[in-house]
Amino acid sequence: MVYCERKVKKDGPNQNRMFHCCPKEDACGFFEWKQTDPCVINTGIELFSNPLQY
After folding, report:
1. Considering only CA atoms, which of 31, 43, 40, 29 is closest in space to residue 6?
2. Which residues pair with 19 in a beta bridge?
3. Which InterPro entries does the record associate with it (predicted)?
4. Is the CB of residue 20 less than 8 Å from the CB of residue 34?
5. Is 27 helix (H, G, I), strand (E, B) or coil?
6. Strand pairing category for 18-21 and 4-7
7. Do residues 35 and 48 touch, judged by C-beta distance below 8 A?
8. Rg for the chain (alpha carbons), in Å?
């Protein structure tokens, strides 16, 4: 399947979010949000695998 990758331009909560859709020539109706990688933030909190270490 051939698809285009585009970005939401309309104001709102999804602005700048990426999605996949059909090329304009095909117009098959396909739409899917592009998956984003989870964001990891260093909080400085250490997590231990052994609950007795807490």
Report:
1. 31
2. 6, 33
3. Znf_GRF
4. yes
5. coil
6. antiparallel
7. no
8. 19
Task: Point out which residues pair with 18 in neighbouring strands.
Answer: 7
- Among 8, 11, 10, 38, which Cα is nearest to 20's? 8
Question: Which residues are CB-neighbours of 14 under 8 A, at least 6 positions away?
Answer: 8
Question: d(Cα 32, Cα 19) in Å, to the nearest integer?
Answer: 6
CA-CA distance, 16 to 31, in Å (whole number)?
16
- Give per-residue pLDDT as tens, 1-54: 678 899 999 999 999 999 999 887 767 888 899 988 776 777 777 777 766 655
